[in-house]
Design a protein that fits this description.
219 residues, alpha/beta, seven-stranded parallel beta sheet, 7 strands
């Protein structure tokens, strides 16, 4: 089994009032959000991000942690599963010149509106069927994406990650450790189909054959 390790420790924390999001959220909001189109990324806040644009404050503080932990260099190859508009991969290329990056996302809108500097490295694809050969990457990353699948589909996606990495992988998932955190997660969640207690996630990893690194998103 991989390590439970917080490689996102330097990622900015949200300061939003989660209870208000719970009060206003409807099944229709979730339905629109789960289309992962313009409404989700750049529409009203109730459907998702409320405007998804690049800022160096997010990933430029995180990339050095990944670089050190996985000993990344210009010779490394990484894949982002659920890359959205490619902001993280852009910062990887900026902070580790020469590194090879690839990204996939289910959202045609996100890929069409990706950051121009990495757009050619991104493609629309499904996490359950990654369009890459076995052992193609030194590191596969998936941040708050796989929990948007149901359990059966997530097992397939985890096996795909294991297939295309020849060395490392790191994923983060919606999770909770107690009832208070569960309530907060339910308030926050808009798109996830699977949320579990951290211990249940670990058991799930074992069932799915996922043996790489992981951590949690807990608002």
């Amino acid at each position: 089994m991989g390590k439970e390790i917080n490689l996102m420790i330097n990622y900015p924390k949200t300061k939003r009032d989660l209870s208000k999001r719970l009060e206003k959220k409807t099944d229709k909001d979730r339905e629109i959000a789960r289309k992962y189109g313009k409404d989700f990324f750049d529409g009203e806040r109730k459907y998702g991000y409320g405007g998804f644009s690049y800022s160096p404050r997010y990933w430029q503080n995180v990339i050095p942690t990944f670089k050190e932990h996985y000993n990344l260099s210009k010779d490394s190859k990484i894949l982002d599963v659920g890359c959205a508009k490619g902001f993280m991969l852009y910062d990887f290329k900026k902070l580790i010149p020469g590194i090879t990056v690839k990204g996939i996302d289910i959202s045609e809108y996100a890929i069409e509106n990706a950051k121009e500097e990495v757009k050619s490295d991104l493609q629309v694809a499904d996490a359950r069927k990654l369009p890459f050969d076995d052992n193609s990457f030194d590191l596969v990353i998936s941040i708050t994406t796989l929990h948007n699948l149901n359990k059966d589909d997530m097992k397939i996606a985890l096996k795909e990650i294991m297939r295309v990495t020849k060395k490392d992988a790191f994923i983060t998932l919606d999770a909770y450790r107690d009832d208070k955190e569960k309530i907060a997660m339910e308030s926050w969640n808009l798109t996830a189909l699977t949320m579990m207690h951290t211990q249940k996630w670990k058991e799930f990893f074992s069932e799915a054959g996922y043996t790489k690194d992981y951590y949690w998103f807990i608002p």
